[in-house]
Design goal:
The structure is a single chain. The chain is of the alpha+beta class. It is built from 10 helices and 22 strands. The protein has helices at residues 44-49, 103-109, 113-120, 139-144, 146-159, 173-181, 246-256, 258-266, 315-330, 376-389; strands spanning 3-5, 13-15, 20-25, 29-34, 39-43, 76-81, 87-93, 98-102, 136-138, 161-165, 193-195, 211-214, 226-234, 241-245, 268-274, 279-285, 287-289, 295-298, 335-338, 345-349, 353-357, 367-374. The strands form 6 sheets. Strands 9-10-20-13-22-11 form a 6-stranded mixed β-sheet. Strand 17 and strand 18 (295-298) form a beta hairpin. The longest helix is centred in the C-terminal third of the chain and has 16 residues, at 315-330. The radius of gyration is 26 Å and the shape is elongated. 32% of the residues are buried. The chain binds fe (ii) ion and zinc ion.
Amino acid sequence: VSAISFNAKTAAESESPALIRRVTVTARRLVVEWRDGEESALPFLWLRDSCLCPFCRDPRNGQRLVDAIDLPIEPVPRRLDLSVSDEIGVEWLPDGHLSRYTAAWLAAYDLTDSARARRRGRVRLWGWEIVDELPRVEWSEVTLDAAAEWRALSLFKEFGFVLFAGVPTESGMVTRVGDHFGHVRVTNYGRHFDVVSLPNPDNLAYTEAALAAHTDNPYRDPAPGVQLLHCLEADAPGGDSILVDGFRLAEEMRRADPAGFELLTRLALSFRFANATADLAARAPVIALDCEGQLVAVHFNSRSADAPDMPAEAVESWYAAYRRFANLLRAPEGELRLRLDPGDLLMMSNARVLHGRTAFDASLGRRHLQGCYIDIDGVLSRLRLLSREAGG
Ligand SMILES: [Fe+2]
Ligand SMILES: [Zn+2]
């Protein structure tokens, strides 16, 4: 009905109902006008490369069969087919290839700033004030109900951590939870590690001392993505947990001291851990950004920081920036204090959330946590699978 020939040099228009209101062809873009008035201007090259037809994508697995370098350099629509509501069919020049794009696909992969922000997901920066509305889910619900698990992982993504309550207090349970969401990463500490006070500790974690908020193991490459900490016993006075949102600190730093922020992103620190059987070293900046300037990770661990290895002329200004960041870190309004009860299990992004504890007295009671690491890709994969089940 509405198969219309287009001259790519002149804009042509066609009305269609539903989500897609109008499609316009300009010199190099297919412009989709949505029902809500928003517009998406999609480059021909990108559309042609994203074709979902069985010649371009294997229908059995969705994988690509064509490499972008083998496509026409300047594909241009010869005809549009708008006869099916909320679908755009394109016949391409110069090779006559036929592509179809659904409104749902176009909306999901749209290139507008708002669509791209939506894909990154909602991140909620937090401080002590969330103490009464913790991202907390009963473990028994997670094991019975996919919707509860989806909610838990959505909270994890938004806050950078989630607290599971009522996880059976059995030794090794933390690795079963870890393997449920991903694959436990074995390190020189084993598949899991016991956080208890030891007589001859090779790590300050295994003492009664207070631990300032930190990220774990920045001396590994890559650093662990997700840490799970399971409370088995909590009789000792003290030993409260402290969580800090590293992304909130970093954004505060970016606003308050742009030059200092830049130094913390540009100069790497050396981190190291050495005992009788391991000598681990890695370099990472305090604040890591991706190529678009978005926060990727915070690395903060004064216990395992080696002597900074950086150009001498940068040292003083770097220390000033570091001090400023560390002072933000110590501000009480950023500290979320929790008392973990037996059965509580914290799952946190080790790239975003810093954790610490107050001192405790092991002569008056036991404090026993077990921890393990998993990679974050497993957690996000699980979240996508659950979203798929939910039809989202
Ligand atoms: Fe730690
Ligand atoms: Zn195709």
